[in-house]
Amino acid sequence: MAKPEELVFAPLGGVGEIGMNLSIYGLGNRQQRAWLAIDLGVSFGDEEHLPGIDLIMPDVSFLEKERKNLMGLVLTHAHEDHFGAIIDLWPKLKCPIYATQFSAALFEAKCAAERNAPKIPVTVVPSGGRVDIGPFNVEFIPVAHSIPESHALAIHTEVGTVLHTGDWKIDPTPIIGRPTDEKRLRELGDAGLLALIGDSTNAVRDGRSPSEAEVASSITELVKAAKGRVAVTTFASNVARLKAVAIAAKAADREVVVVGRAMERVVQVARETGYLDGVQSFRSAEVYGHLPQDKVLALCTGSQGEPRAALARIANDDHPEITLNRGDSVIFSSRTIPGNEKAVGAIINGLVLQGVEVITDRDQLVHVSGHPRRDELRDMIAWTRPQLLIPVHGEALHLNEHAKLARAAGVPRVLVCRNGDLVKLGPGDPGIIGQVPAGRLYKDGTILEDSKSRAVGERRRMAFSGCAFVAIAMTEQGELADDPAVELVGIPEKNKAGEPFDDLVFDAVVSTVEGLPKARRRDPDALAESVRRAVRSVINEHWGKKPPCLVHVLTV
């Protein structure tokens, strides 16, 4: 390959949105570049706008075309929005994967739990270690976050060094794992940092994020004060929070019962990797009912309102092993992700109706974010002194606020980009020099669909206005062979005047067929289109909505 001329960066997901993170770095000339991918995550479907869609993933068509030049995929940490798309998308890329021990172990457990998951090898890199991946030398710098072994990545190249922060915060007492490595970050700044590609999630929040140790203390006091049963729900991957809950349970002489498969999986991996050393053994859900009410603490999945998770079933009083009653307490040790408010609210209401006391971060210090607030962002800039800062991992407001903060902090160049922008980092003046394909893929059951999928659009329309089905049997002479069959789904039974919609549609179909010239009646496509238009028109006249209409014409 020709001597590298420039270092470029392109976000393919995670910029202008929260989740679905995928960033790529290219080194070379405009004819050929070696590529390095960072993270490959998901975001979650919204039933209102994307009915039936479980997961949303970044479009990797550009990397598929560049597969021979894709040197590897590096994981900053093992949250779903950073590694949740690998099982589905790695077969399109088949590149080496690099991660530290906990991330690799959690990924292995995730693969083992998924039916027909491909065998995906992962190269384990030590925390704080370095690895050569093609022309890139990647250094894993420990940072505090809400999962063990989160790392900023220092990407060392001939053109210069880039710091890709991943998700991070400054927490001197993180309960589990190492604090953010200020010393190493300052050293990068002293050596000269070309660019900082930085987390913007909390760029709108002043001050600093509280420490995990403060949350642990608060949870301990709440559990000790509780009289009845206690349930705690949090992100399963937040091992520091799981340990804090275990410490609180021990202080209150309670047994910890783990409820939910995702929680069980993370607990197992955390024990295997040493992150729960010294923490008492947890019990399985079957023993919950045999323990005295003041001696049990249930650690549950479902903090985001997931309908199949443990807490939703408890709130609906249909969990086979876990029940809560008046006088019991539930602690939501989590923040509701935007878009999940209705689902979480439904669970809280279900618990309150059962007489359960619900405690959230609005009431007590039971959760802290794993992302940096504005003072922490200023610290990162002061330590590393980048020549260029690009805000990522946030919606438009977050990116804009991070950019304004960086300019005020004296960063020489600040550039806000979007998914698909190809950004030259160096040498010379940085800037957007082109575009690469970027988009979304939908996980629809077991199928990956393009975001322009007809099925998703049709499903959304049907959710809004139902659907009409019409079957017509015609003779070869262009006459009705029998009465048309009409079926209306999701459409009111009667109009304002009390007339059945079935009758209105039936009459519209018959009058349309009989009003057409015989030549059009003998053309199944033309007949179907005329009937479709007539049915939608009559329903709109009496209801104010135009549902999809499917017409099947059979010649007998």
TrEMBL record:
Presence of the UniProt keyword Hydrolase in the record: yes
SUPFAM superfamilies attached to this UniProt entry: Metallo-hydrolase/oxidoreductase (SSF56281)
Metallo-beta-lactamase domain: residues covered: 21-219
Keyword RNA-binding applies: yes
Signal peptide positions (record): none
GO molecular function: exonuclease activity; metal ion binding; RNA binding
Keywords tagged on the record: Cytoplasm, Exonuclease, Hydrolase, Metal-binding, Nuclease, RNA-binding, Zinc
Pfam families, sorted: Lactamase_B (PF00753), RMMBL (PF07521), RNase_J_b_CASP (PF22505), RNase_J_C (PF17770)
InterPro entries: Metallo-B-lactamas (IPR001279), RibonucZ/Hydroxyglut_hydro (IPR036866), RMMBL (IPR011108), RNase_J (IPR004613), RNase_J_2 (IPR042173), RNase_J_b_CASP (IPR055132), RNase_J_C (IPR041636)
Domain of life assignment: Bacteria
Protein's UniProt name: RNase J family beta-CASP ribonuclease
